[in-house]
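ok posting inputs for the indole-3-glycerol phosphate job
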Amino acid sequence: MKKEQNILEAIVKGTRERVNHKKKNLTLEELQDQVRSFPAAMDFPFEKALRTKGLSFICEVKKASPSRGIISPDFPYLKIAQEYEQAGASAISCLTEPVYFQGKDEYLREIAETVSVPVLRKDFVVDAYMIWEAKLLGASAVLLICAILTDRELEEWIRLCHSLGLSALVEVHTEGEVLRARQAGARIIGVNNRDLKTFQVDINVSQRLKKLVPQEIIFVSESGIRTRADIELLERHGTDAVLIGETLMCSRDKKEQLNRLKGK
Ligand SMILES: O=P(O)(O)OC[C@@H](O)[C@@H](O)c1c[nH]c2ccccc12
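and the output
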């Protein structure tokens, strides 16, 4: 238990070190200048895509994870993203955390340049620098994980995201975190069915926490979604969108798998 808990701490520590290193090559001020110098969409395409009628699918491009190890050894990330788009994904989630998920900033940049659906930066944001960076890479949304942020960081960074035209997917796993996310001004709340400290997956966490999220906030269910029955359960409870990684990444025919999940 203790060792497992340390994984989240280790990821956060590694991420802080990486950001500090990046700042030596490009300072926050320089990064902000770069962001301000190019015209960027301010119409929140990620939020819009999730607000459309019916359940929306956010499909994740992920090479590896701490719970599964390597998921896709050859990892043709652009091809995967294009397949997701053609299969009817509303948005794409791209891991950029390089150690535990073997992600890369470049994957995000190239995917955002290639597909026309909005792209979410999936990482462990522990510094505002990473939000500006997400914008520069072409993301339309950023994941903010309640468990690793203070109330003040949450509130400030949700505001920063919105001022940059980025949507914030605010991730929660407990009742207390849902309340913190609401208090901080979240417009999109994602329940992670996987406990990041123990890796245990329980889809009922979404069902339980949905009750605390008012209608006007977009409700996303994340992780461990495998079957049509999972989707039907989530739909019955008023879920707006699902975020699916492994189930799609492990399917040879992603379109067929997505259609199966959609009940087509
Ligand atoms: O591959 P899955 O079980 O379908 O899960 C996808 C996604 O929810 C998961 O990758 C995730 C959810 N929250 C995160 C935070 C950081 C890294 C990864 C995640």
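notes: The chain is about 45% helix and 15% strand. Strands lie at 56-61, 64-65, 69-70, 91-95, 119-122, 141-145, 167-172, 188-192, 218-222, 241-244.
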